[in-house]
Amino acid sequence: MILEMKVPSPGESITEVEIATWLVQDGDYVEKDQAIAEVDSDKATLELPAEASGIITLKAEEGDAVAVGAVVCLIDTSASKPEGGSAPKKEDVKAEAPKKEEKPAVAAAETTTYATGTASPAAKKILAEKGIDASTIAGTGKDGRVTKDDAVKAVPSMGTPTGGNRGSSRSRMSMLRRKVAERLVEAKNTTAMLTTFNEVDMSPIFALRNEYKEAFKNKHGVGLGFMSFFTLAVVRALKMYPDVNSMIDGNEMITYDFVDISIAVSGPKGLMVPVIRNAENLTFRGVESEVKRLALRARDGQITVDEMTGGTFTISNGGVFGSMLSTPIINPPQSGILGMHNIVERPVAINGKVEIRPVMFVALSYDHRIIDGKESVGFLVAVKEALENPTELLMNNDIKKALEL
């Protein structure tokens, strides 16, 4: 019996996928539920499992865009498993084609005259002074001889590259990368995006982490990072400024009474944005555990479409790559994104005196169509206040209870 394997729907609104990699070869024997291919959708990379055991015949090439529901391979379920665990390849059973008699190649000397690439005495002197090999020059003299004029013209001027590797390569962008590109351009073209900036003195968070990070990790099995502080600070600010937790749908504005935080993480296939659901109900431990779980799944290519669908606000941490300051692009259809950056010791004025403090620049990009300057600036100030006074504003003055120690 020949089983037709069709592309399953990886999620709502996805109509096609791209064959990223075949994990088996044409003619292989595959077991049921064995991963036979990796497919890219516009949201994630997913594994395609075999629906039955048998010998497989591939019907699509790597890089092909295949519609959901289309046949990508055939599995002969009547074929028995060969001894040794793998089926003979098709090329193994084909009769070897008779080799065509090859004609001897014409020697280079038969097609090149003695003068080709040879420099005249004057040209040789110029090229030697400049360190240029005469064989790299296309001579215009008789029979290809390199003339003085050729050597003069070949002398590199300021900025002219000489030597070194100047190669290039061309590769097809994955479907995920193409979709990211489309969404970034869409965000720039369809939103009235504006960015406001501020700076945060991270000293209070540094002090808390230094004192409690070991106890926190020993108790909960995850580190006490910056993401939990920022996530809970964002949750608090969104409650104060609900317009930032909104999005446009046609001529209407949808405002959410829950907070689903999208976190931008770097995966093997590029940028991915998994979602922390109902962040307003999570503690420091809950946020850190969820961030770790989603980051590991993204890194291992196991993230699902459902885990990246939705989100009402995004946090992007460019600081892990060393970014000092940036203007993050809105993740549509959301209306706001907070950009975190690296932490640098900077001189700041404290009570009339200059002190060195660990400072992070933060940026809020927002859709000015539904978020006014008052709300955007107020939101970012609220985030700053919570981060600079976390014990009172994020922990209700009970650190151990907030950290569940």
Q: Please, could you describe this protein's structure?
A:
- It is a single chain.
- The chain has eleven helices and 18 strands.
- The protein is of the alpha+beta class.
- The chain has two domains: 2-87, OB fold (Dihydrolipoamide Acetyltransferase, E2P), CATH 2.40.50.100; 189-402, Chloramphenicol Acetyltransferase.
- The strands form four sheets. Strands 9, 12, 13, 14, 15, 16, 17 and 18 form an eight-stranded mixed beta sheet that branches. Strands 1-8-6-3 form a four-stranded antiparallel beta sheet, with no helix packed on it.
Query: Number of DSSP helices?
Result: 11
Q: What is the fold named in CATH at topology level of the largest domain?
A: Chloramphenicol Acetyltransferase
Name the CATH homologous superfamily of the largest domain: Chloramphenicol acetyltransferase-like domain
Number of domains: 2
Mean pLDDT: 84
The percentage of residues in β strands lies in 15-25%
Structural class: alpha+beta
CATH architecture of the largest domain: 2-Layer Sandwich
Shape: extended
**Helicity range of the residues?**
25-40%
Largest sheet: 8 strands, mixed
Report the radius of gyration as a whole number of Å.
31 Å
How would the blueprint of this fold be written?
Blueprint: E1 2-6, E2 16-22, E3 29-30, E4 35-40, E5 45-49, E6 54-58, E7 65-67, E8 71-76, H1 90-93, H2 108-111, H3 121-130, H4 148-154, H5 175-190, E9 193-201, H6 203-220, H7 226-240, E10 246-249, E11 252-255, E12 261-267, E13 270-272, E14 275-276, H8 284-299, E15 313-317, E16 336-340, E17 343-350, E18 353-367, H9 373-388, H10 390-393, H11 399-402
Parallel strand pairs: 12-15, 15-16
Antiparallel strand pairs: 1-8, 2-4, 2-7, 3-6, 4-5, 6-8, 9-18, 10-11, 12-13, 12-14, 16-18, 17-18
